[in-house]
């Protein structure tokens, strides 16, 4: 008699998308998708396909492939995945079904990109993470607003006062493109956390920074830092601290958003939320830190003018790392500003297509089900 446990079929899950400016919303969608099966395959579209159907991506396809590979729940990345998900694609990678968030994705012609897999019953839906979208982040950078790190009773209100031509203001009609509220919870942090503690024999590495608009520059640095030991801890500075040493409207993403973005990275084991700017003896002793790393970017002094790495330098455990990648958050902001008009057009078109498809779906739903008997498609 065979053992049923050993006979259990491996469930392979397919996800696809642009994954432009990969943020915790993308990561949360992939986390939920992985939970529906055993292996997660993620298809990423080319720059050409995205430009055709949606508008210019912020990041290049090579940058986007790399970012998705680094998300801890992803098992395999398929480069140049087709924009419209087909049954042939699912079969080619032996995937049982496709998973996407409960928002709408359409082609240049306004067609639902998942209509084929939906019709075949090989589509599952997960909840979209409210309060963040690539569109919203682009809007924040274009307008350089400080709304995203309000404090007090407005602390969790994410950028509600954007310009309507970006489709990201409080009156934005599309529920997917428009801004929402991101409400951080301990449960969300637990879901993103590895839940691991360093073993007594582990060499603990510590790095600190803003890690704003988490990008491939951060990724390469964290991979290099991870290679310095066995357990990588990332200290994230508060919004006020980041604003002190970066100025302007930084950070673009608030502390809660940055925590989840960093936790989703497979090279990171733990995050210190609101870490002190200066690496103290207390912090190093508490976490048993043996190596403290910093990249090649200039080190801003603490508020009192002191070197924030005095203690690790005195202990002889400070390392300057070259990751081979010089990208900074400021570089990304400049990319956005240089192509401002293109992105404004992209965001407006995206909202219009979403609204058009929503209306069409609502009409079809009423025709098929009548006013009294409404079928629940999400069950």
Describe this structure in words.
Residues 14-138, 207-299 form the Cytidyltransferase-like domain. InterPro entries: CCT (IPR041723), Cyt_trans-like (IPR004821), Ect1/PCYT2 (IPR044608), Rossmann-like_a/b/a_fold (IPR014729). With 379 residues, the protein is α/β, with parallel strands linked by helices. Among the domains are: 12-126, 3-Layer(aba) Sandwich (Rossmann fold); 186-327, Rossmann fold (3-Layer(aba) Sandwich), CATH 3.40.50.620. The chain has helices spanning 4-7, 24-35, 47-53, 61-69, 87-92, 115-119, 134-143, 186-192, 216-226, 239-246, 255-263, 281-286, 310-314, 329-338, 340-369; strands at residues 12-17, 39-44, 76-79, 97-101, 123-126, 204-209, 231-236, 270-273, 289-294, 318-320. The chain has a five-stranded parallel beta sheet. The protein has a five-stranded parallel beta sheet with strand order 8-7-6-9-10. The two termini are 35 Å apart.
């Amino acid at each position: 008699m065979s053992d049923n446990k050993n006979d259990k079929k491996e469930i392979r899950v397919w996800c696809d998308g642009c994954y432009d400016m990969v943020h915790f919303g993308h990561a949360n969608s992939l986390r939920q998708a992985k939970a529906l099966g055993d292996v997660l395959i993620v298809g990423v579209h080319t720059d050409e396909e995205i430009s055709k159907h949606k508008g210019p991506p912020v990041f290049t396809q090579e940058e986007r492939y790399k970012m998705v590979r680094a998300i801890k729940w992803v098992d395999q990345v398929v480069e140049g995945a087709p924009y419209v998900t087909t049954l042939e694609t699912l079969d080619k990678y032996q995937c049982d079904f496709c998973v996407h968030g409960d928002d709408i994705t359409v082609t240049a012609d306004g067609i639902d990109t998942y209509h084929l897999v939906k019709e075949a019953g090989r589509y599952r839906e997960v909840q979209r993470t409210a309060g963040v979208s690539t569109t919203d982040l682009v809007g924040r950078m274009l307008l350089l607003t400080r709304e995203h790190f309000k404090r007090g009773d407005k602390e969790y209100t994410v950028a509600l006062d954007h310009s309507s031509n970006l489709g990201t203001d409080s009156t934005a009609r599309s529920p997917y493109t428009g801004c929402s509220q991101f409400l951080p919870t301990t449960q969300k942090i637990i879901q993103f956390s590895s839940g691991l503690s360093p073993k007594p024999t582990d060499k603990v590495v510590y790095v600190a920074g803003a890690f704003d608009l988490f990008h491939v520059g951060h990724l390469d640095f964290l991979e290099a830092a991870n290679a310095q030991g066995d357990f990588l801890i990332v200290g994230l500075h508060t919004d006020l601290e980041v604003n002190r040493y970066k100025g302007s409207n930084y950070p673009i993403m608030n502390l809660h958003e940055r925590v989840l973005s960093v936790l989703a990275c497979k090279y990171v084991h733990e995050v210190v939320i609101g870490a002190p700017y200066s690496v103290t003896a207390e912090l190093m002793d508490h976490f048993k830190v043996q190596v403290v790393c910093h990249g090649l970017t200039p080190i801003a002094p603490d508020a009192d003018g002191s070197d924030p790495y005095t203690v690790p330098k005195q202990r002889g455990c400070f390392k300057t790392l070259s990751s081979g990648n010089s990208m900074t958050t400021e570089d990304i902001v400049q990319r956005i500003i240089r192509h401002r008009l293109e992105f404004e057009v992209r965001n407006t078109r995206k909202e219009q297509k979403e609204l058009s498809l929503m209306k069409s779906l609502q009409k079809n739903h009423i025709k098929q089900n009548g006013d009294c008997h409404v079928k629940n498609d999400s069950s």
